[in-house]
Amino acid sequence: MPTKTRSEPRPRGAEAAWRTVRAVAGIFSLAVSLVMLAGHLNASAIDPLKSPDLKELKEKLRLNPSDEPTKRGIRALDLELRARYFRQLSRSASGAYLLIGGVVVFLIAAAQCARYRKQPPMPKPSSGATDPAKAAKIARWAVSATGATAGGLLLLLSLGGSAPVSEKPGSDNSLAAAQASAAVANVDAASVEELRRNWPRFRGPGGNGVSDATNLPAGWDPKTGAGIAWKTPVPAPGFNSPIIWGSRLYFSGGDSAKREVFCYDCSNGHLIWRQPVGNVPGSPAQAAEIPETTGYAASTMATDGRRVYAIFATGDVAAFTLEGKPVWSKSFGPLKNPYGYASSLATWRDRLIVLLDQGESEDGKSKLYALDGRTGQLVWQTPRKVGSSWATPITFEGAGQPQVVALAIPWAISYGLTDGVELWHAECLSGEITPSPVFAGGLVLVPSPSDKLLAIRPDGRGDVTKTQVAWTTEDNVPDVTSPVSNGELVFALTTPGVLTCLDAKDGKKQWEHDLEIECHSSPSLAGNRLYVFGQKGAAIVAEAGRQYKEVFRTEMPDIFHASPAIVDNRIILRGVTNLWCLATSPGNIRAAK
Q1: 170 and 26 within one domain
Q2: Angle at alpha carbon of residue 468, lines to 463 and 472, rounded to 5°
Q3: What whole-number distance in Å separates Cα of residue 389 and Cα of residue 406?
Q4: What residues contact residue 358 under an 8 Å CB cut-off, 6+ apart?
Q5: Of 402, 392, 396, whose CA–CA distance to 184 is shortest?
Q6: Reading across the β-sheet that carries 378-383, which strands appear in turn?
Q7: How far is it, in rounded angstroms, from Cα 150 to Cα 28?
Q8: What is the pLDDT of residues 158-189, one digit of tens each?
Q9: Helix (H) or strand (E) run with residue 17 in it
Q10: 112, 39: one domain
Q11: pTM, whole model, 2 decimals?
Protein backbone atom coordinates (compact mmCIF):
# COMPACT_ATOMS: atom_id res chain seq x y z
CA MET A 1 0.00 0.00 0.00
CA PRO A 2 1.23 3.49 -0.72
CA THR A 3 2.74 5.34 2.22
CA LYS A 4 1.99 8.99 3.20
CA THR A 5 4.93 11.35 3.27
CA ARG A 6 5.42 14.96 4.50
CA SER A 7 5.46 16.10 0.88
CA GLU A 8 2.05 14.63 0.16
CA PRO A 9 -0.35 17.24 -1.28
CA ARG A 10 -3.04 18.81 0.95
CA PRO A 11 -6.64 19.03 -0.27
CA ARG A 12 -7.09 21.76 -2.88
CA GLY A 13 -10.71 22.30 -1.71
CA ALA A 14 -9.57 23.49 1.73
CA GLU A 15 -7.12 25.92 0.14
CA ALA A 16 -9.93 27.40 -1.96
CA ALA A 17 -12.09 27.71 1.15
CA TRP A 18 -9.40 29.64 3.04
CA ARG A 19 -9.00 31.95 0.08
CA THR A 20 -12.74 32.59 0.08
CA VAL A 21 -12.73 33.24 3.84
CA ARG A 22 -9.85 35.68 3.36
CA ALA A 23 -11.75 37.53 0.64
CA VAL A 24 -15.02 37.67 2.58
CA ALA A 25 -13.24 38.80 5.78
CA GLY A 26 -11.46 41.52 3.87
CA ILE A 27 -14.68 42.74 2.26
CA PHE A 28 -16.44 42.54 5.64
CA SER A 29 -13.72 44.61 7.38
CA LEU A 30 -13.82 47.20 4.61
CA ALA A 31 -17.62 47.39 4.82
CA VAL A 32 -17.53 47.82 8.61
CA SER A 33 -14.96 50.59 8.21
CA LEU A 34 -17.16 52.42 5.72
CA VAL A 35 -20.24 52.03 7.93
CA MET A 36 -18.30 53.36 10.95
CA LEU A 37 -17.05 56.32 8.94
CA ALA A 38 -20.57 57.13 7.78
CA GLY A 39 -21.81 56.73 11.36
CA HIS A 40 -19.18 59.14 12.62
CA LEU A 41 -20.22 61.75 10.09
CA ASN A 42 -23.89 61.14 10.87
CA ALA A 43 -23.27 61.47 14.63
CA SER A 44 -21.74 64.88 14.08
CA ALA A 45 -24.73 65.88 11.98
CA ILE A 46 -27.29 64.82 14.61
CA ASP A 47 -25.39 66.16 17.63
CA PRO A 48 -28.13 67.77 19.79
CA LEU A 49 -25.78 70.58 20.72
CA LYS A 50 -25.29 71.54 17.06
CA SER A 51 -28.76 71.05 15.61
CA PRO A 52 -29.78 74.10 13.54
CA ASP A 53 -33.47 73.17 13.87
CA LEU A 54 -33.16 73.06 17.66
CA LYS A 55 -31.33 76.38 17.71
CA GLU A 56 -34.05 77.92 15.56
CA LEU A 57 -36.77 76.73 17.92
CA LYS A 58 -34.86 78.03 20.96
CA GLU A 59 -34.48 81.43 19.34
CA LYS A 60 -38.20 81.44 18.62
CA LEU A 61 -38.90 80.61 22.29
CA ARG A 62 -36.53 83.33 23.44
CA LEU A 63 -38.58 85.88 21.53
CA ASN A 64 -41.82 84.47 22.94
CA PRO A 65 -41.14 82.65 26.26
CA SER A 66 -44.82 81.76 26.80
CA ASP A 67 -45.18 79.87 23.49
CA GLU A 68 -46.20 76.40 24.74
CA PRO A 69 -46.26 74.68 21.28
CA THR A 70 -42.67 75.81 20.72
CA LYS A 71 -41.69 74.43 24.14
CA ARG A 72 -43.26 71.07 23.28
CA GLY A 73 -41.53 71.09 19.91
CA ILE A 74 -38.16 71.75 21.54
CA ARG A 75 -38.61 68.90 23.99
CA ALA A 76 -39.75 66.45 21.31
CA LEU A 77 -36.95 67.35 18.89
CA ASP A 78 -34.33 67.28 21.64
CA LEU A 79 -35.49 63.83 22.76
CA GLU A 80 -35.44 62.51 19.18
CA LEU A 81 -31.98 63.94 18.46
CA ARG A 82 -30.52 62.58 21.68
CA ALA A 83 -32.02 59.12 21.06
CA ARG A 84 -30.54 59.01 17.54
CA TYR A 85 -27.22 60.39 18.76
CA PHE A 86 -26.78 57.80 21.48
CA ARG A 87 -27.91 54.95 19.21
CA GLN A 88 -25.19 56.02 16.82
CA LEU A 89 -22.61 56.08 19.62
CA SER A 90 -23.68 52.53 20.52
CA ARG A 91 -23.29 51.41 16.89
CA SER A 92 -19.82 52.88 16.77
CA ALA A 93 -18.79 50.99 19.88
CA SER A 94 -20.16 47.71 18.43
CA GLY A 95 -18.53 48.42 15.07
CA ALA A 96 -15.09 48.69 16.65
CA TYR A 97 -15.38 45.13 17.99
CA LEU A 98 -16.71 43.82 14.66
CA LEU A 99 -13.85 45.47 12.80
CA ILE A 100 -11.29 43.86 15.11
CA GLY A 101 -12.96 40.47 14.62
CA GLY A 102 -13.01 40.84 10.85
CA VAL A 103 -9.34 41.80 10.72
CA VAL A 104 -8.38 38.83 12.93
CA VAL A 105 -10.28 36.39 10.66
CA PHE A 106 -8.66 37.98 7.59
CA LEU A 107 -5.17 37.56 9.06
CA ILE A 108 -5.79 33.91 10.01
CA ALA A 109 -7.13 33.10 6.55
CA ALA A 110 -4.21 34.91 4.89
CA ALA A 111 -1.75 32.90 7.00
CA GLN A 112 -3.38 29.61 5.97
CA CYS A 113 -3.27 30.58 2.28
CA ALA A 114 0.41 31.40 2.66
CA ARG A 115 1.10 27.93 4.04
CA TYR A 116 -0.49 26.32 0.99
CA ARG A 117 1.72 28.39 -1.31
CA LYS A 118 4.82 27.06 0.48
CA GLN A 119 3.78 23.41 -0.15
CA PRO A 120 2.92 22.98 -3.88
CA PRO A 121 0.97 19.81 -4.81
CA MET A 122 3.04 16.70 -5.83
CA PRO A 123 2.13 14.70 -8.95
CA LYS A 124 2.05 11.42 -7.01
CA PRO A 125 -1.53 10.61 -5.97
CA SER A 126 -2.38 9.22 -2.57
CA SER A 127 -5.21 7.00 -1.51
CA GLY A 128 -5.81 9.43 1.44
CA ALA A 129 -6.57 12.37 -0.88
CA THR A 130 -9.89 14.09 -0.43
CA ASP A 131 -12.55 13.44 -2.99
CA PRO A 132 -12.90 16.50 -5.33
CA ALA A 133 -16.68 16.55 -4.95
CA LYS A 134 -16.37 16.47 -1.18
CA ALA A 135 -13.78 19.25 -1.23
CA ALA A 136 -16.05 21.40 -3.38
CA LYS A 137 -18.91 20.82 -0.95
CA ILE A 138 -16.69 21.91 1.98
CA ALA A 139 -15.62 25.01 0.07
CA ARG A 140 -19.23 25.97 -0.70
CA TRP A 141 -20.20 25.47 2.97
CA ALA A 142 -17.28 27.62 4.15
CA VAL A 143 -18.16 30.41 1.76
CA SER A 144 -21.84 30.29 2.72
CA ALA A 145 -21.13 30.25 6.45
CA THR A 146 -18.63 33.09 6.22
CA GLY A 147 -20.96 35.17 4.08
CA ALA A 148 -23.92 34.56 6.39
CA THR A 149 -21.87 35.50 9.42
CA ALA A 150 -20.57 38.66 7.79
CA GLY A 151 -24.04 39.63 6.59
CA GLY A 152 -25.54 39.05 10.04
CA LEU A 153 -22.85 41.13 11.69
CA LEU A 154 -23.35 43.93 9.19
CA LEU A 155 -27.10 43.83 9.80
CA LEU A 156 -26.49 44.00 13.55
CA LEU A 157 -24.18 46.95 13.04
CA SER A 158 -26.66 48.77 10.86
CA LEU A 159 -29.55 48.31 13.34
CA GLY A 160 -27.43 48.92 16.40
CA GLY A 161 -29.74 48.87 19.43
CA SER A 162 -28.91 51.57 21.92
CA ALA A 163 -27.01 50.44 24.97
CA PRO A 164 -28.80 50.86 28.29
CA VAL A 165 -27.83 54.00 30.19
CA SER A 166 -27.29 53.84 33.91
CA GLU A 167 -29.92 55.86 35.71
CA LYS A 168 -28.13 55.73 39.04
CA PRO A 169 -27.60 59.35 40.14
CA GLY A 170 -23.98 60.36 40.27
CA SER A 171 -22.79 57.20 38.49
CA ASP A 172 -19.58 57.41 36.50
CA ASN A 173 -21.02 56.72 33.07
CA SER A 174 -19.76 58.53 30.01
CA LEU A 175 -23.02 58.02 28.13
CA ALA A 176 -25.03 59.37 31.05
CA ALA A 177 -22.66 62.33 31.23
CA ALA A 178 -23.21 63.05 27.54
CA GLN A 179 -26.97 62.90 28.07
CA ALA A 180 -26.66 65.33 30.98
CA SER A 181 -24.72 67.74 28.79
CA ALA A 182 -27.38 67.56 26.12
CA ALA A 183 -30.10 68.15 28.73
CA VAL A 184 -28.28 71.21 30.07
CA ALA A 185 -28.24 72.63 26.54
CA ASN A 186 -32.04 72.34 26.43
CA VAL A 187 -32.71 74.50 29.49
CA ASP A 188 -36.32 75.43 30.21
CA ALA A 189 -35.63 78.34 32.57
CA ALA A 190 -35.08 82.08 32.65
CA SER A 191 -31.76 83.65 31.71
CA VAL A 192 -29.28 84.98 34.24
CA GLU A 193 -30.24 88.52 33.27
CA GLU A 194 -33.93 87.83 33.98
CA LEU A 195 -33.07 86.30 37.34
CA ARG A 196 -31.08 89.39 38.31
CA ARG A 197 -34.04 91.65 37.56
CA ASN A 198 -36.29 89.63 39.88
CA TRP A 199 -36.13 88.11 43.37
CA PRO A 200 -36.31 84.39 42.59
CA ARG A 201 -35.32 82.81 45.92
CA PHE A 202 -34.41 83.46 49.56
CA ARG A 203 -32.41 86.71 49.62
CA GLY A 204 -32.71 87.27 45.90
CA PRO A 205 -30.51 86.32 42.93
CA GLY A 206 -27.75 83.99 44.13
CA GLY A 207 -29.03 84.19 47.71
CA ASN A 208 -26.80 87.18 48.52
CA GLY A 209 -29.39 89.73 49.67
CA VAL A 210 -28.35 92.25 46.99
CA SER A 211 -30.68 94.03 44.54
CA ASP A 212 -29.79 95.99 41.40
CA ALA A 213 -32.69 98.39 42.06
CA THR A 214 -31.65 102.04 42.36
CA ASN A 215 -34.97 103.84 42.88
CA LEU A 216 -36.11 102.39 46.20
CA PRO A 217 -37.74 104.52 48.87
CA ALA A 218 -35.32 106.19 51.31
CA GLY A 219 -38.15 106.50 53.86
CA TRP A 220 -41.86 105.92 54.52
CA ASP A 221 -44.45 106.77 57.14
CA PRO A 222 -46.71 104.02 58.49
CA LYS A 223 -48.96 106.65 60.11
CA THR A 224 -49.71 108.77 57.04
CA GLY A 225 -49.13 106.08 54.40
CA ALA A 226 -46.43 108.06 52.61
CA GLY A 227 -44.14 105.67 50.75
CA ILE A 228 -46.44 102.68 51.35
CA ALA A 229 -48.20 101.43 48.22
CA TRP A 230 -50.43 98.87 49.97
CA LYS A 231 -50.76 96.38 52.78
CA THR A 232 -52.94 93.28 53.09
CA PRO A 233 -53.45 90.64 55.79
CA VAL A 234 -51.25 87.53 55.67
CA PRO A 235 -53.57 84.59 54.86
CA ALA A 236 -51.63 81.78 56.60
CA PRO A 237 -48.81 81.40 59.13
CA GLY A 238 -45.23 80.89 58.00
CA PHE A 239 -41.75 82.31 58.51
CA ASN A 240 -40.66 82.09 54.86
CA SER A 241 -39.77 85.20 52.87
CA PRO A 242 -41.61 86.32 49.71
CA ILE A 243 -40.15 85.84 46.24
CA ILE A 244 -40.98 87.98 43.20
CA TRP A 245 -41.20 87.22 39.50
CA GLY A 246 -42.39 89.96 37.18
CA SER A 247 -45.40 91.69 38.71
CA ARG A 248 -46.22 88.82 41.06
CA LEU A 249 -45.07 87.77 44.50
CA TYR A 250 -45.23 84.25 45.91
CA PHE A 251 -44.97 82.73 49.38
CA SER A 252 -46.22 79.71 51.28
CA GLY A 253 -48.02 79.16 54.57
CA GLY A 254 -49.85 76.57 56.58
CA ASP A 255 -50.19 74.42 59.65
CA SER A 256 -50.77 70.76 60.53
CA ALA A 257 -54.17 70.79 58.82
CA LYS A 258 -53.34 72.52 55.52
CA ARG A 259 -50.35 73.83 53.54
CA GLU A 260 -50.77 76.31 50.68
CA VAL A 261 -48.96 78.42 48.09
CA PHE A 262 -50.12 82.01 47.44
CA CYS A 263 -49.67 84.41 44.54
CA TYR A 264 -50.33 88.17 44.87
CA ASP A 265 -50.19 91.12 42.50
CA CYS A 266 -47.21 93.32 43.39
CA SER A 267 -48.90 96.45 42.09
CA ASN A 268 -51.99 96.39 44.30
CA GLY A 269 -51.71 93.50 46.77
CA HIS A 270 -54.66 91.57 45.34
CA LEU A 271 -54.68 87.77 45.62
CA ILE A 272 -54.30 86.21 42.17
CA TRP A 273 -54.39 82.54 43.14
CA ARG A 274 -53.88 80.14 46.04
CA GLN A 275 -53.27 76.43 45.77
CA PRO A 276 -53.27 73.74 48.47
CA VAL A 277 -50.40 71.26 48.64
CA GLY A 278 -52.10 68.00 49.52
CA ASN A 279 -52.42 64.38 48.40
CA VAL A 280 -48.69 64.38 47.70
CA PRO A 281 -47.47 60.92 46.58
CA GLY A 282 -45.56 59.26 49.40
CA SER A 283 -46.60 61.81 52.01
CA PRO A 284 -47.76 60.47 55.41
CA ALA A 285 -51.49 60.66 55.96
CA GLN A 286 -50.97 62.45 59.26
CA ALA A 287 -48.55 65.41 59.40
CA ALA A 288 -45.88 65.09 62.07
CA GLU A 289 -45.74 67.50 64.98
CA ILE A 290 -43.49 70.44 64.12
CA PRO A 291 -41.94 72.87 66.66
CA GLU A 292 -43.67 76.26 66.71
CA THR A 293 -40.28 77.99 66.51
CA THR A 294 -40.08 77.06 62.82
CA GLY A 295 -43.57 75.87 61.92
CA TYR A 296 -44.65 74.08 58.76
CA ALA A 297 -43.67 76.82 56.28
CA ALA A 298 -40.28 78.22 57.31
CA SER A 299 -38.59 77.49 53.97
CA THR A 300 -38.68 80.19 51.30
CA MET A 301 -39.93 79.22 47.86
CA ALA A 302 -37.91 79.48 44.64
CA THR A 303 -38.60 80.00 40.94
CA ASP A 304 -36.68 79.42 37.73
CA GLY A 305 -38.91 81.89 35.89
CA ARG A 306 -41.07 79.11 34.45
CA ARG A 307 -42.37 77.40 37.58
CA VAL A 308 -42.52 78.13 41.32
CA TYR A 309 -41.49 75.57 43.93
CA ALA A 310 -42.39 75.17 47.60
CA ILE A 311 -41.24 72.80 50.35
CA PHE A 312 -42.74 72.26 53.78
CA ALA A 313 -41.54 70.79 57.08
CA THR A 314 -43.53 67.65 56.25
CA GLY A 315 -41.01 66.91 53.49
CA ASP A 316 -43.55 67.63 50.74
CA VAL A 317 -42.31 69.47 47.65
CA ALA A 318 -44.63 70.91 45.00
CA ALA A 319 -44.23 72.74 41.69
CA PHE A 320 -46.75 75.07 40.05
CA THR A 321 -46.81 77.11 36.88
CA LEU A 322 -46.63 80.87 37.34
CA GLU A 323 -50.40 80.87 36.78
CA GLY A 324 -51.01 78.39 39.60
CA LYS A 325 -51.49 75.15 37.70
CA PRO A 326 -50.01 72.12 39.58
CA VAL A 327 -47.07 70.59 37.72
CA TRP A 328 -45.80 67.86 40.06
CA SER A 329 -45.37 67.00 43.73
CA LYS A 330 -43.38 64.48 45.75
CA SER A 331 -42.51 63.77 49.36
CA PHE A 332 -39.14 63.38 51.12
CA GLY A 333 -40.75 63.15 54.54
CA PRO A 334 -41.01 62.74 57.35
CA LEU A 335 -37.98 64.90 58.12
CA LYS A 336 -36.14 64.41 61.42
CA ASN A 337 -34.92 67.74 62.72
CA PRO A 338 -34.94 68.72 66.41
CA TYR A 339 -36.00 72.34 65.69
CA GLY A 340 -38.00 71.73 62.52
CA TYR A 341 -36.98 72.08 58.87
CA ALA A 342 -36.05 75.60 57.66
CA SER A 343 -33.57 75.38 54.74
CA SER A 344 -34.90 77.21 51.69
CA LEU A 345 -34.98 76.06 48.07
CA ALA A 346 -32.60 77.15 45.33
CA THR A 347 -32.56 76.74 41.57
CA TRP A 348 -29.88 76.41 38.92
CA ARG A 349 -31.11 76.70 35.36
CA ASP A 350 -34.15 74.37 35.35
CA ARG A 351 -32.99 72.27 38.27
CA LEU A 352 -34.39 72.53 41.76
CA ILE A 353 -31.79 72.24 44.53
CA VAL A 354 -33.09 70.71 47.77
CA LEU A 355 -30.95 70.45 50.92
CA LEU A 356 -32.23 67.94 53.48
CA ASP A 357 -29.87 67.90 56.47
CA GLN A 358 -31.45 65.90 59.27
CA GLY A 359 -30.76 63.69 62.26
CA GLU A 360 -27.20 63.10 63.44
CA SER A 361 -24.16 62.73 61.21
CA GLU A 362 -23.94 59.00 61.94
CA ASP A 363 -27.57 58.46 60.86
CA GLY A 364 -26.68 58.90 57.18
CA LYS A 365 -29.98 60.67 56.42
CA SER A 366 -28.66 64.00 55.13
CA LYS A 367 -28.56 64.51 51.35
CA LEU A 368 -28.38 67.22 48.71
CA TYR A 369 -30.69 66.73 45.73
CA ALA A 370 -31.05 68.15 42.24
CA LEU A 371 -34.46 67.61 40.66
CA ASP A 372 -35.64 68.26 37.12
CA GLY A 373 -37.86 71.31 37.51
CA ARG A 374 -40.11 70.18 34.69
CA THR A 375 -40.90 66.72 36.05
CA GLY A 376 -39.60 66.46 39.61
CA GLN A 377 -37.47 63.50 38.59
CA LEU A 378 -34.13 63.01 40.30
CA VAL A 379 -31.12 64.32 38.38
CA TRP A 380 -28.56 63.53 41.08
CA GLN A 381 -28.30 63.08 44.83
CA THR A 382 -25.28 63.36 47.10
CA PRO A 383 -25.07 61.89 50.62
CA ARG A 384 -23.79 64.29 53.29
CA LYS A 385 -22.05 62.96 56.40
CA VAL A 386 -23.55 65.70 58.58
CA GLY A 387 -26.45 66.19 60.96
CA SER A 388 -29.28 68.72 61.02
CA SER A 389 -28.78 72.26 59.78
CA TRP A 390 -31.04 75.20 58.98
CA ALA A 391 -28.94 77.24 56.53
CA THR A 392 -29.80 77.63 52.85
CA PRO A 393 -27.33 76.62 50.09
CA ILE A 394 -26.13 79.15 47.52
CA THR A 395 -25.43 78.59 43.83
CA PHE A 396 -22.87 80.52 41.80
CA GLU A 397 -20.30 80.35 39.02
CA GLY A 398 -16.87 80.24 40.67
CA ALA A 399 -13.42 79.21 39.44
CA GLY A 400 -14.92 78.45 36.02
CA GLN A 401 -17.47 75.97 37.37
CA PRO A 402 -21.07 76.14 38.64
CA GLN A 403 -21.05 75.34 42.34
CA VAL A 404 -23.49 74.89 45.20
CA VAL A 405 -22.21 75.45 48.74
CA ALA A 406 -24.02 73.99 51.76
CA LEU A 407 -23.19 74.33 55.47
CA ALA A 408 -23.49 71.88 58.37
CA ILE A 409 -21.24 71.03 61.30
CA PRO A 410 -18.32 70.89 60.82
CA TRP A 411 -18.11 71.48 57.07
CA ALA A 412 -18.62 74.10 54.43
CA ILE A 413 -18.83 71.92 51.31
CA SER A 414 -18.95 72.83 47.62
CA TYR A 415 -20.46 70.48 45.02
CA GLY A 416 -20.52 70.64 41.24
CA LEU A 417 -24.00 71.62 40.09
CA THR A 418 -23.89 69.43 37.00
CA ASP A 419 -23.34 66.13 38.84
CA GLY A 420 -23.32 66.71 42.61
CA VAL A 421 -19.70 65.60 43.00
CA GLU A 422 -17.85 67.27 45.89
CA LEU A 423 -15.33 69.89 44.80
CA TRP A 424 -13.92 71.15 48.10
CA HIS A 425 -14.63 71.29 51.82
CA ALA A 426 -13.43 73.30 54.80
CA GLU A 427 -13.69 72.22 58.42
CA CYS A 428 -14.76 75.47 60.05
CA LEU A 429 -18.24 75.31 61.60
CA SER A 430 -19.69 74.90 65.08
CA GLY A 431 -22.93 75.75 66.86
CA GLU A 432 -26.45 75.71 65.38
CA ILE A 433 -25.97 76.33 61.65
CA THR A 434 -28.69 78.86 60.82
CA PRO A 435 -26.97 81.73 58.89
CA SER A 436 -26.49 81.06 55.18
CA PRO A 437 -23.32 81.65 53.15
CA VAL A 438 -23.00 84.33 50.47
CA PHE A 439 -20.75 84.67 47.41
CA ALA A 440 -19.33 88.16 46.81
CA GLY A 441 -16.09 89.64 45.53
CA GLY A 442 -14.93 86.20 44.40
CA LEU A 443 -15.12 84.81 47.96
CA VAL A 444 -17.56 82.52 49.78
CA LEU A 445 -18.45 84.14 53.11
CA VAL A 446 -19.21 81.43 55.67
CA PRO A 447 -20.62 82.29 59.13
CA SER A 448 -19.94 79.92 62.02
CA PRO A 449 -22.64 81.20 64.40
CA SER A 450 -21.38 83.46 67.20
CA ASP A 451 -17.89 82.13 66.52
CA LYS A 452 -16.21 83.38 63.36
CA LEU A 453 -16.83 84.60 59.84
CA LEU A 454 -14.59 83.12 57.14
CA ALA A 455 -13.88 84.10 53.52
CA ILE A 456 -13.00 81.07 51.37
CA ARG A 457 -11.59 81.13 47.83
CA PRO A 458 -13.74 78.74 45.73
CA ASP A 459 -10.97 77.51 43.41
CA GLY A 460 -9.58 74.73 45.63
CA ARG A 461 -10.04 70.96 45.56
CA GLY A 462 -10.40 68.53 48.44
CA ASP A 463 -9.72 69.77 51.96
CA VAL A 464 -9.09 73.54 51.70
CA THR A 465 -9.20 74.30 55.42
CA LYS A 466 -5.55 75.32 55.52
CA THR A 467 -5.06 76.52 51.95
CA GLN A 468 -8.05 78.56 50.68
CA VAL A 469 -9.25 80.60 53.68
CA ALA A 470 -8.53 84.22 52.70
CA TRP A 471 -9.40 85.75 56.08
CA THR A 472 -11.22 85.14 59.34
CA THR A 473 -12.84 87.47 61.88
CA GLU A 474 -14.36 86.73 65.27
CA ASP A 475 -16.06 90.09 65.98
CA ASN A 476 -19.86 90.23 66.20
CA VAL A 477 -20.53 87.09 64.13
CA PRO A 478 -24.29 86.59 63.51
CA ASP A 479 -26.09 83.56 64.91
CA VAL A 480 -29.37 83.77 62.95
CA THR A 481 -29.12 86.38 60.19
CA SER A 482 -26.94 86.00 57.10
CA PRO A 483 -24.27 88.51 56.01
CA VAL A 484 -24.58 90.73 52.94
CA SER A 485 -21.84 92.14 50.70
CA ASN A 486 -21.46 94.32 47.62
CA GLY A 487 -18.01 92.84 46.91
CA GLU A 488 -16.24 95.79 48.53
CA LEU A 489 -17.75 95.78 52.01
CA VAL A 490 -19.33 93.04 54.15
CA PHE A 491 -22.14 93.78 56.60
CA ALA A 492 -22.99 91.36 59.43
CA LEU A 493 -25.88 91.76 61.86
CA THR A 494 -26.27 89.91 65.17
CA THR A 495 -29.59 89.03 66.77
CA PRO A 496 -29.12 91.73 69.47
CA GLY A 497 -28.78 94.29 66.66
CA VAL A 498 -25.04 94.97 66.45
CA LEU A 499 -24.22 95.88 62.83
CA THR A 500 -20.58 95.45 61.73
CA CYS A 501 -18.88 96.57 58.52
CA LEU A 502 -15.79 94.72 57.23
CA ASP A 503 -13.49 95.15 54.26
CA ALA A 504 -14.32 92.34 51.84
CA LYS A 505 -10.69 91.87 50.76
CA ASP A 506 -9.07 91.25 54.13
CA GLY A 507 -11.87 91.17 56.71
CA LYS A 508 -10.63 94.22 58.62
CA LYS A 509 -13.33 95.94 60.66
CA GLN A 510 -14.40 99.36 59.35
CA TRP A 511 -16.99 100.10 62.02
CA GLU A 512 -19.62 98.59 64.29
CA HIS A 513 -22.87 100.14 65.53
CA ASP A 514 -25.49 98.99 68.00
CA LEU A 515 -28.90 99.48 66.39
CA GLU A 516 -30.57 98.64 69.71
CA ILE A 517 -33.12 96.36 68.08
CA GLU A 518 -33.61 92.57 67.94
CA CYS A 519 -33.20 91.06 64.46
CA HIS A 520 -34.11 87.78 62.82
CA SER A 521 -34.48 89.23 59.32
CA SER A 522 -31.24 89.36 57.31
CA PRO A 523 -30.02 92.77 56.05
CA SER A 524 -30.32 93.65 52.36
CA LEU A 525 -28.39 95.94 50.00
CA ALA A 526 -29.66 98.06 47.11
CA GLY A 527 -27.32 100.61 45.58
CA ASN A 528 -25.61 102.47 48.41
CA ARG A 529 -28.34 101.74 50.93
CA LEU A 530 -28.54 99.06 53.60
CA TYR A 531 -32.02 97.98 54.73
CA VAL A 532 -32.57 96.43 58.17
CA PHE A 533 -35.90 95.31 59.66
CA GLY A 534 -36.19 94.46 63.34
CA GLN A 535 -38.25 91.70 64.83
CA LYS A 536 -40.58 94.12 66.68
CA GLY A 537 -41.22 96.41 63.71
CA ALA A 538 -38.22 98.76 63.61
CA ALA A 539 -37.11 99.71 60.08
CA ILE A 540 -33.69 101.29 59.45
CA VAL A 541 -32.00 102.57 56.30
CA ALA A 542 -28.24 103.24 56.50
CA GLU A 543 -25.56 104.14 54.01
CA ALA A 544 -23.51 101.21 52.73
CA GLY A 545 -20.18 102.95 53.32
CA ARG A 546 -16.99 102.82 55.38
CA GLN A 547 -18.57 104.99 58.04
CA TYR A 548 -21.92 104.37 59.69
CA LYS A 549 -24.57 106.87 58.71
CA GLU A 550 -28.23 106.30 59.48
CA VAL A 551 -30.51 107.70 56.79
CA PHE A 552 -33.92 106.73 58.11
CA ARG A 553 -35.64 104.96 61.02
CA THR A 554 -39.28 104.27 61.80
CA GLU A 555 -41.51 101.84 63.70
CA MET A 556 -43.98 99.65 61.84
CA PRO A 557 -46.97 97.99 63.53
CA ASP A 558 -45.95 94.42 62.75
CA ILE A 559 -43.47 91.68 63.64
CA PHE A 560 -40.80 90.72 61.08
CA HIS A 561 -38.97 87.41 60.93
CA ALA A 562 -38.80 87.10 57.13
CA SER A 563 -36.25 88.88 54.96
CA PRO A 564 -37.48 91.45 52.40
CA ALA A 565 -37.89 90.96 48.66
CA ILE A 566 -36.65 93.88 46.55
CA VAL A 567 -37.31 94.67 42.86
CA ASP A 568 -37.42 97.83 40.78
CA ASN A 569 -38.95 100.51 43.01
CA ARG A 570 -40.60 98.20 45.55
CA ILE A 571 -39.75 96.47 48.81
CA ILE A 572 -42.10 93.63 49.79
CA LEU A 573 -42.22 92.69 53.48
CA ARG A 574 -43.92 89.72 55.06
CA GLY A 575 -44.90 90.47 58.63
CA VAL A 576 -46.68 88.18 61.02
CA THR A 577 -49.86 90.22 60.48
CA ASN A 578 -49.59 91.90 57.07
CA LEU A 579 -47.88 91.92 53.71
CA TRP A 580 -46.40 95.37 53.06
CA CYS A 581 -45.33 97.04 49.83
CA LEU A 582 -43.00 100.02 50.21
CA ALA A 583 -42.63 102.10 47.05
CA THR A 584 -41.08 105.36 45.89
CA SER A 585 -44.41 106.96 45.03
CA PRO A 586 -46.11 108.43 48.12
CA GLY A 587 -49.67 107.60 48.94
CA ASN A 588 -52.11 106.46 51.57
CA ILE A 589 -52.30 102.95 52.96
CA ARG A 590 -54.86 100.95 51.07
CA ALA A 591 -56.20 97.67 52.37
CA ALA A 592 -56.12 95.30 49.40
CA LYS A 593 -59.38 93.55 48.60
Answers
A1: yes
A2: 115
A3: 9
A4: 335, 336, 337, 341, 365, 366, 387, 388
A5: 402
A6: 346-348, 351-356, 367-372, 378-383
A7: 6
A8: 444 333 333 333 333 333 444 454 455 578 99
A9: helix 12-45
A10: yes
A11: 0.71
